[in-house]
């Protein structure tokens, strides 16, 4: 450089500088120094940019980093230099670098530029651009519901978490067909009306970058067939230790279909099976709700709705049998009836009963040992200690044994020779008493009907009547000694009955012997005489006399009194 012999100089141009020393005359020259490159900084600002400019980059994706110079209006041809894990270290005419992101790609990237006609005038380094490569993502498939209602459809959504720029590919398969891509479906959401196994994945970039496929989602079509869970045996009360079978029944619409079944419940399989029933021994853990649904064997993705819940409630206490009997002694030549029942809820049913005699016996009684009736009754004619228990089900579940009941035979009574005469004598006595009572009642009835008064037609007949009554009284006295009280009836003709009419006087003589024997001296007979003129006589020129009823009272002494 001319005019620059000083030890120190100041330069404003970029370039490669060197120096040497001189002295003396003639001039002596040292060797030239090592060169020093001086570059001039240009004021243009430089920025590193990413394409595509997604906020999250995944390992395996291909990206491009570009070094952009913000020019001041003039058009300049530039060359570029990079600093970063995956960039060239020499100047290049290309302002971008493209590479596939890997774990080693992560880091800070910077660049600067210079004019191509001035290699020693360059920009400052750009601000660092940090690249972070994430692991390959997996798409997520969600469904509002996995059951397509009859005649309807469901919406499926595919997404890639915390990233942009994705398109989506959809796939469907079945258990019998291979996976195929659903064409013309690149959207995030799709609607489907077919049953099957669906999956999706995301795509973006050029060359295309694929995410991992989503998890499978099974979509099922709902049939209208109704499904019901039924219990066999259908006892309303189930005890711990009993064996039951739950059956899933499909109410078909007339067609015959081969079905397979799925269960939900504490003691049921969770996978599809060809068996429509499950059999298990009931325990405390068996209590709960049981449901099932079914699907056609030839269409694994078309199924019925879940059945209504069937609630199984398990009784943990073992029931006990109870024995009852109205008699404990077997009559001679007879038997005693024993009853066995299960001391459980009134809803407990289905029991059979097993009978045993003697405490040490484990063999149940047979028809040779007793007469078996329905409803847990037997008739036994042998004495012994009896007990029973209930049992039900194919794998027989037994109750606890009942308490024991002792049945004894009743001793036969000793024969009595006169035993057959006693009822005969009693019968005869009662018959005689009954006849006497009837006679006494008949006599009393007559006495009450007829009074102890005698009616007579006139007073001039009293002597005759008295005579007749006296005779009758004597006769009555004689008769009363035999019978006690007697009634004597006598016909008495009227003395004036010259015309042989039918006028009759009726006399009744009653002797009352009801008094004590001490009153024999004052015994009286009272007579009542009735006079009846059948055809009264008429005298010429005179009217017929009016019938006159006259009553004559006579006191008649009995024969005993006269004596």
Automatic annotation (TrEMBL):
Cellular component annotations (GO), alphabetically ordered: external side of plasma membrane
Keywords recorded for this protein, A-Z: Disulfide bond, Membrane, Signal, Transmembrane, Transmembrane helix
Gene Ontology terms for molecular function: transmembrane signaling receptor activity
Domain Ig-like: 60-132, 137-222, 241-313, 319-404
GO biological process terms on file: cell surface receptor signaling pathway; immune response
TM regions (residue ranges): 420-443
Composition bias type Basic residues, residue spans: 532-542
Superkingdom, taxonomy of origin: Eukaryota
Annotated region described as Disordered, given as residue ranges: 511-563
Protein name, UniProt field: Ig-like domain-containing protein
Source organism phylogeny: Eukaryota, Metazoa, Chordata, Craniata, Vertebrata
């Amino acid at each position: 450089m001319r005019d620059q012999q000083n030890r120190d100089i100041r330069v404003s141009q970029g370039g490669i500088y060197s120096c040497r020393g001189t002295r003396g005359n003639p001039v002596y020259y040292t060797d030239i120094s090592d060169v020093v490159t001086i570059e001039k900084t240009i004021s243009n600002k430089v920025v590193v940019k990413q394409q595509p400019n997604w906020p999250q980059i995944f390992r395996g994706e291909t990206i491009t980093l570009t070094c952009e110079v913000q020019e001041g209006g003039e058009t300049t041809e530039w060359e570029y230099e990079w600093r970063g894990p995956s960039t060239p270290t020499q100047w290049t005419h290309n302002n971008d670098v493209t590479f596939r992101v890997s774990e080693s790609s992560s880091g800070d990237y910077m660049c600067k530029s210079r004019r191509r006609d001035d290699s020693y005038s360059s920009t400052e380094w750009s601000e660092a651009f940090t690249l972070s490569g994430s692991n390959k993502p997996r798409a997520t498939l969600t469904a509002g519901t996995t059951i397509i209602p009859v005649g309807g459809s469901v919406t499926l959504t595919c997404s890639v978490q915390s990233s942009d720029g994705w398109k989506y590919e959809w796939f469907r398969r079945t258990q019998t067909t291979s996976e195929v891509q659903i064409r013309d479906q690149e959207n995030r959401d799709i609607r489907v009306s077919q049953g099957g196994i669906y999956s999706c994945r995301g795509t973006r970039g050029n060359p295309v970058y694929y995410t991992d496929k989503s998890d499978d989602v099974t979509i099922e079509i709902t049939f209208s067939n109704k499904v019901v869970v039924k219990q066999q045996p259908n006892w309303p009360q189930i005890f711990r230790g009993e064996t039951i079978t739950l059956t899933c029944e499909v109410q078909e619409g007339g067609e015959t279909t081969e079905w397979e079944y799925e269960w939900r419940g504490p003691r049921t399989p969770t996978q599809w099976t060809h068996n429509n029933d499950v059999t298990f021994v009931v325990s405390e853990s068996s209590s709960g709700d049981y449901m099932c649904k079914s699907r056609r064997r030839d269409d694994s993705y078309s199924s019925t709705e879940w059945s209504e819940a069937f609630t199984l409630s398990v009784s943990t206490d073992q029931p006990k049998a109870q024995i009852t009997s109205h008699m404990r002694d077997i009559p001679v030549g007879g038997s005693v009836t024993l009853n066995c029942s299960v001391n459980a809820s009134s809803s407990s049913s289905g029991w059979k009963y097993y009978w045993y005699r003697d405490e040490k016996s484990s063999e149940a009684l047979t028809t040779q040992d007793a007469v078996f009736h329905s409803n847990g009754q037997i008739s036994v004619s042998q004495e012994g200690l009896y007990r029973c228990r209930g049992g039900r089900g194919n794998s027989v579940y037994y109750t606890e044994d009942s308490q024991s009941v002792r049945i004894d035979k009743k001793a036969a009574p000793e024969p009595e020779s006169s035993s057959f005469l006693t009822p005969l004598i009693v019968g005869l006595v009662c018959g005689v008493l009954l006849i006497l009572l009837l006679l006494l009642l008949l006599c009393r009835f007559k006495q009450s009907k007829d009074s102890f008064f005698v009616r007579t037609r006139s007073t001039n007949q009293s002597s005759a009547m008295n005579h007749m009554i006296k005779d009758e009284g004597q006769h009555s006295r004689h008769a009363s000694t035999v019978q006690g009280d007697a009634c004597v009836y006598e016909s008495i003709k009227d003395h004036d009955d010259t015309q042989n009419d039918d006028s009759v006087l009726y006399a009744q003589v009653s002797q009352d012997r009801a008094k004590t024997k001490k009153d024999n001296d004052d015994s009286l007979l009272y007579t009542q005489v009735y006079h009846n003129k059948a055809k009264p006589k008429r005298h010429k020129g005179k009217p017929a006399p009016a019938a006159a009823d006259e009553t004559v009272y006579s006191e008649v002494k009995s024969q005993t009194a006269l004596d």
